């Protein structure tokens, strides 16, 4: 009797997921993602999740859950002193699941519940993972999980011996190593230690593994899959991989040089350290705005010009299909290339001996405008609710929307209404404006008749 009930419930669940995936895979993805946030919130609300064995206020539990699932790292409570071991394990689980991505998570649900994916689900998953063949989607998902876990294990094995050598107990070293590995690769930005990451400024055994994990995680699974395949066999590098790697490397170098020059003499950041530490700390700080959120320097002590520079890096974010946020490096690269092509009078946008379709440029412009609109509206609302200065407010909003996690220290003191604004920014920044628009669209517009063309004056 019990077995028949389970079979009946399983069949009903499979049918429900199948219908949802067929009707709108994007809405299914948002439903799964929102469900994960709700589940993590409930778990963090349990008294066992806190050191004091007391319930966390709902807004703080929700804020932390959204920050973890959306791999941001902003917090309204002190992570190592407020959350118990159980609470920290819940955060690790949330960061790992959230780092896989919205559509990947929904696809994995479809596979686990239905034992297969329908055509609609395969199409939208292929779009996120950039699979060339629909038959490869299942294998690509497995590769994503295996690859991400492998990078996390490499980071864990690199960090743990160093922590043991620094007189940490074995259990603490193992736990912190695993926490940092998951937090770094998934660009989550959560820290399990009371002393934070400032203690590791100038420490290459911590900074280099963490920075590498953040950088690789921010490249995006489509690029990682290309690199893995080219390592196994001489596979062709896609245009997306070339564009992402070259733009990411350029942004890293520019960020490294820019932060080093602007903070070199600042006594509150780099000024009091030697040349080696300055170079390492500025390189680490250049990687983190990609969406890493960890910092060995006090961001609140950055010069205003440096914070504006970091604002730009956070708005650009990481690669498409990555654990990072922002408008994505490929969007930024396409916009720059289109501006160059327009300035030169070229008819087409070309890069790496390939022509970029006009539809792709239009999508890049849409992402830029929608993201800028979200940031602008959120900043206006935050200024009205908090009365804070524009510099810190913009930094906080961009950090949330870019799912970065860097903060000038104002997050815990925000009123409840302002925390809700930051929650909305983190959520929209993680799922992406295009995914949100597709999920909320009631129907697709298809027009048979096209109106006559006429060019307005631009500029």
UniProtKB/TrEMBL annotation:
InterPro entries: Cat_transpt
Segments traversing the membrane: 28-46, 58-77, 83-113, 134-159, 205-231, 243-262, 325-343, 364-383, 421-442
Membrane topology, from the record: Multi-pass membrane protein
Subcellular location: Cell membrane
Pfam family of the protein (one): TrkH
Keywords linked to the UniProt accession: Cell membrane, Ion transport, Membrane, Transmembrane, Transmembrane helix, Transport
Name the UniProt record assigns to this protein: TrkH family potassium uptake protein
């Amino acid at each position: 009797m019990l077995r028949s009930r389970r079979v009946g419930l399983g069949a009903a669940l499979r049918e429900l997921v199948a219908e949802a995936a067929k009707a709108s895979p994007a809405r299914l993805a948002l439903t799964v993602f929102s469900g994960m946030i709700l589940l993590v919130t409930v778990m963090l609300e349990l008294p066992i999740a806190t050191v004091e064995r007391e319930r966390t206020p709902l807004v703080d539990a929700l804020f932390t859950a959204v920050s973890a699932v959306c791999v941001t790292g902003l917090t309204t409570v002190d992570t190592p002193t407020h959350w118990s071991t159980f609470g920290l394990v819940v955060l690790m689980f949330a960061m790992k699941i959230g780092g896989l991505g919205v559509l990947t998570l929904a696809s994995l649900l479809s596979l686990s519940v239905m034992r297969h994916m329908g055509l609609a689900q395969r199409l939208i998953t292929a779009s996120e993972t950039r699979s060339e063949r629909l038959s490869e989607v299942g294998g690509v998902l497995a590769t994503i999980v295996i690859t991400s876990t492998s990078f996390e294990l490499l980071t864990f094995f690199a960090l743990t011996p160093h922590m043991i050598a620094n007189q940490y107990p074995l259990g603490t070293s193992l736990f912190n190593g695993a926490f940092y590995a998951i937090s770094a690769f998934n660009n989550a930005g959560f820290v399990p230690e009371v002393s934070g990451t400032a203690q590791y400024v100038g420490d290459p055994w911590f900074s280099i593994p963490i920075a590498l994990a953040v950088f690789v995680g921010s490249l995006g699974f489509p690029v990682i899959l290309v690199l893995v395949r080219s390592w196994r066999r001489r596979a062709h590098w896609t245009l997306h991989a070339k564009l992402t790697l070259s733009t990411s490397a350029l942004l890293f170098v520019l960020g490294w040089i820019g932060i080093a020059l602007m903070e070199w003499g600042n006594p509150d950041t780099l000024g009091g350290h030697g040349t080696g530490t300055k170079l390492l700390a500025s390189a680490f700080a250049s990687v983190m705005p990609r969406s890493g959120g960890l910092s060995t320097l006090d961001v609140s002590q950055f010069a205003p010009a440096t914070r504006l520079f970091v604002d730009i890096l956070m708005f650009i974010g990481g690669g498409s299909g990555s654990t990072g946020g922002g408008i994505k490096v490929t969007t930024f690269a396409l916009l720059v290339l289109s501006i160059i092509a327009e300035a030169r009078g070229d008819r087409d946008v070309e890069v790496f001996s390939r022509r970029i379709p006009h539809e792709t440029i239009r999508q890049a412009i849409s992402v830029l405008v929608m993201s800028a609109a979200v940031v602008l509206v959120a900043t206006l609302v935050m200024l009205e609710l908090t009365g804070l200065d524009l510099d810190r407010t913009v930094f906080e909003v961009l950090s949330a929307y870019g799912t970065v996690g860097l903060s000038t220290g104002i997050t815990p003191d925000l009123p409840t209404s302002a925390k809700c604004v930051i929650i909305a920014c983190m959520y929209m920044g993680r799922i992406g404006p295009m995914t949100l628009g597709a999920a909320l669209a009631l129907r697709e517009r298809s027009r048979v008749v096209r109106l006559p063309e006429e060019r307005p004056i631009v500029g």
